[in-house]
Amino acid sequence: MKKMMIGFMLAVCGGVAGLAQTNFYTNVTNLWYQGYKSNVLAIANARLAANSNDIAGLILKAEYHLEFCEETALSNAFL
Questions:
Q1: Are 74 and 64 in contact (CB under 8 A)?
Q2: Separation of alpha carbons 4 and 17, rounded Å
Q3: In the chain, how many H helices and how many E strands?
Q4: Which residues contact 57 (CB under 8 A, 6 or more apart)?
Q5: CB-based contact 24:32 (threshold 8 Å)
Q6: Considering only CA atoms, which of 34, 7, 11, 23 is closest in space to residue 56?
Q7: pLDDT digit string (tens) for 35-63?
Q8: CB within 8 A of 32, min separation 6: which ones?
Q9: Largest Cα span, the chain
Q10: φ/ψ bin of 35: left (φ > 0), alpha (ψ from -120 to 50), beta (otherwise)
Q11: Is the dihedral of CA 65, 69, 72, 75 positive or negative?
C-alpha cells in the first residue's frame, strides 16, 4: 500500500511538472506570435540569470537575436 501511494504521488507530481512545462512553451509561443518578442527576451534573460545553462533560455535568446539579425549578440548567445 505504501509503495502504491508513493507511486501515485510521483505520478501526480510528474504530471503537474509536465503540465507546467507545456504551459510555459504555450505562453512563450503565444507571446512571440502576438508580437511581444521583447517579453520573450525578458523571460529568456530571467531564466539565464537563474541558471546560465538553461537550454530554453539560451534558445529563446538566440531566436530573438536571429529574428532581428543581431549577429554580434547572436554569437554571444551561442557562446
A1: no
A2: 20
A3: 4, 0
A4: 43, 44, 45, 46, 47, 48, 51
A5: no
A6: 23
A7: 999 999 999 999 999 999 999 999 898 88
A8: 40, 63
A9: 58
A10: left
A11: positive
Burial 22-39 (b: 16+ CB within 10 A, else e): eeeeeebeebbeeeebee
pTM of the model: 0.63
**Mean pLDDT confidence for 17-31:** 75
Which phi-psi region, left, alpha or beta, contains residue 70 (left: φ > 0; alpha: ψ -120 to 50)? beta
- Cα distance between residue 4 and residue 7, in whole Å: 5
